[in-house]
């Protein structure tokens, strides 16, 4: 620094010109700053080296953990292999009585209960499902059992398989599900049903078609007996399902007449119970969910419309009785005890202890039937069948199931909002 001051003094003495002076100052400044610049560059590269080393350490750590996880997975698999899975008890059936039974839609709500029944009886059961609304969890207790097989397959595509009986249940069943992709719903119920009837014809299997009370549409007669032809809007939002099922019935009787296929047709009314879809937008699930979570219970319309609900084990008994019977015309399977939606909301509130949910009324759902009650005279006469489980007993089991499912889920489960008259975006 002192040399710079000396230089300035000397320059002043000797009257050196300004450019020469500037040159000297720049050179001096450069020499002064260089060590500082060098120091900064060195510390930066040291920091980079350190962070690269840190990153390398983290990667090594991750790789070590990955290796440990795969080691644990392998030992878990080996442990599972050593400890045989325990299955629910089943009856022993000899070769002559044991049937190979295909259940389409067997991973769904009704299908999985039917599978439980057939497995317990000692039959061989093959489930075919595309898991659109079904879940592996519904049948996981049978996976690995020698009598059980699960096939991931969409019935819109043909299936070649050797079976003695087919319960054809594959189809979305609740309005939010079947309206999500109406064309697929129609294909499943038409092309899918043709595939199943074709399979039944080829292997000479008896086939039961799961039809629905929706074939009666918004009925003009009450209660609905099987001889009633129905009141269906062919272009309404429910038509993909209602008309799909009507065609499925028509196809069944065409195959029966022309191809001598043994068909059974069950017209199923509202069914509830464990494993039903938590947020399928149906009355039972919506009300239970809302009551359990202390939300207000939503009723679409005035609440005086009626429904009758059957517990799922009653339906399974009815399906099996129909399959084993010689009765070939459609048959209603449902619980004739009728409740208004208002009454129903009150019953659920009283079962869900401590539910202080209020009741909220919203505009009615388009084409929502006002009254629905099965006439089950045929089922009583030809199948010797009628529902046994009371609404109270059945709802308690359903509420318990919902309670457990809510606990399993870390987030609140919101009921689906059913499409209303104003929801034109459906089209
Ligand atoms: N639950 C009821 O209240 C009720 C009422 C009337 C009729 N039904 C009929 O009973 C049957 C079963 O209903 P659910 O309540 O168990 O419904 P769900 O939705 O629980 O079960 C239907 C099953 O079919 C499967 N599926 C759908 N499309 C398929 C396809 N293309 N290929 C293969 N699998 C497919 C789904 O993944 C699901 O596992 C349906 O045919 C339904 O129409 C049910």
TrEMBL record:
Q: Output a single Gene Ontology CC term carried by this record.
A: Golgi cisterna membrane
Pathway annotation: Nucleotide-sugar biosynthesis; UDP-alpha-D-xylose biosynthesis; UDP-alpha-D-xylose from UDP-alpha-D-glucuronate: step 1/1
What is this enzyme's EC? 4.1.1.35
Its GO biological process annotations read: D-xylose metabolic process; UDP-D-xylose biosynthetic process
Q: Name one GO molecular function term.
A: UDP-glucuronate decarboxylase activity
Keywords on record: Decarboxylase, Glycoprotein, Golgi apparatus, Lyase, Membrane, NAD, Signal-anchor, Transmembrane, Transmembrane helix
- List residues of the NAD(P)-binding domain: 102-397
Subcellular location per UniProt equals: Golgi apparatus, Golgi stack membrane
The coenzyme or cofactor needed here is: NAD(+)
Family annotation (SUPFAM superfamilies): NAD(P)-binding Rossmann-fold domains
The membrane topology of this protein is:
Single-pass type II membrane protein
Q: Which InterPro entries match?
A: NAD(P)-bd_dom, NAD(P)-bd_dom_sf, UXS-like
Annotated protein name in UniProt: UDP-glucuronic acid decarboxylase 1
Instruction: Name its species.
Output: Daphnia pulex
């Amino acid at each position: 620094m002192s040399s710079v001051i000396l230089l300035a003094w000397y320059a002043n003495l000797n009257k050196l010109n300004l450019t020469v002076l500037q040159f000297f100052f720049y050179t001096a400044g450069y020499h002064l700053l260089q060590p500082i610049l060098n120091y900064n560059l060195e510390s930066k590269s040291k920091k980079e080296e350190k962070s690269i080393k840190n990153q390398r350490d983290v990667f090594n750590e991750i790789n070590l953990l990955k290796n440990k996880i795969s080691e644990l997975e392998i030992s878990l698999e080996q442990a599972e292999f050593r400890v045989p899975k325990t299955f629910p008890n089943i009856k022993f059936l000899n070769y002559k009585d044991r049937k190979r039974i295909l259940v389409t839609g067997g991973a769904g709500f009704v299908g999985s209960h039917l599978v439980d029944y057939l497995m317990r009886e000692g039959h061989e059961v093959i489930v075919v499902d595309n898991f659109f609304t079904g879940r592996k969890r519904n049948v996981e207790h049978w996976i690995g059992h020698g009598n059980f097989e699960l096939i991931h397959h969409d019935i819109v595509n043909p299936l070649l398989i050797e079976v003695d009986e087919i319960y054809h249940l594959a189809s979305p069943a609740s309005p939010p599900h079947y309206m999500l992709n109406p064309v697929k719903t129609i294909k499943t119920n038409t092309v899918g049903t043709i595939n199943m009837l074709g399979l039944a014809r080829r292997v000479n299997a008896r086939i039961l078609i799961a039809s629905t009370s929706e074939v009666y549409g918004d009925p003009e007669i009450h209660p609905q007996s099987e001889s009633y032809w129905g009141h269906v809007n062919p272009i309404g939002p429910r038509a993909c399902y209602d008309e799909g099922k009507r065609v499925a019935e028509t196809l069944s009787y065409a195959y029966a007449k022309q191809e001598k296929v043994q068909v059974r047709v069950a017209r199923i009314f509202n069914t509830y119970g464990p494993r039903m879809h938590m947020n399928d937008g149906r009355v039972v699930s919506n009300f239970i969910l809302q009551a359990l979570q202390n939300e207000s219970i939503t009723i679409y319309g005035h609440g005086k419309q009626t429904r009758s609900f059957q517990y799922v084990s009653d339906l399974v008994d009815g399906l099996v009785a129909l399959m084993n019977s010689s009765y070939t015309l459609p048959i209603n399977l449902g619980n004739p005890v009728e409740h208004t939606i208002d009454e129903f909301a009150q019953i659920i509130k009283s079962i869900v202890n401590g539910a202080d949910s209020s009741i909220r009324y919203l505009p009615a759902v388009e084409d929502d039937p006002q009254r629905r009650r099965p006439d089950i005279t045929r089922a009583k006469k030809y199948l010797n069948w009628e529902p046994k489980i009371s609404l109270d007993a059945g709802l308690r089991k359903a509420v318990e199931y919902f309670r457990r499912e809510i606990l399993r889920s870390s987030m609140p489960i919101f009921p689906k909002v059913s499409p209303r008259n104003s929801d034109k975006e459906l089209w």
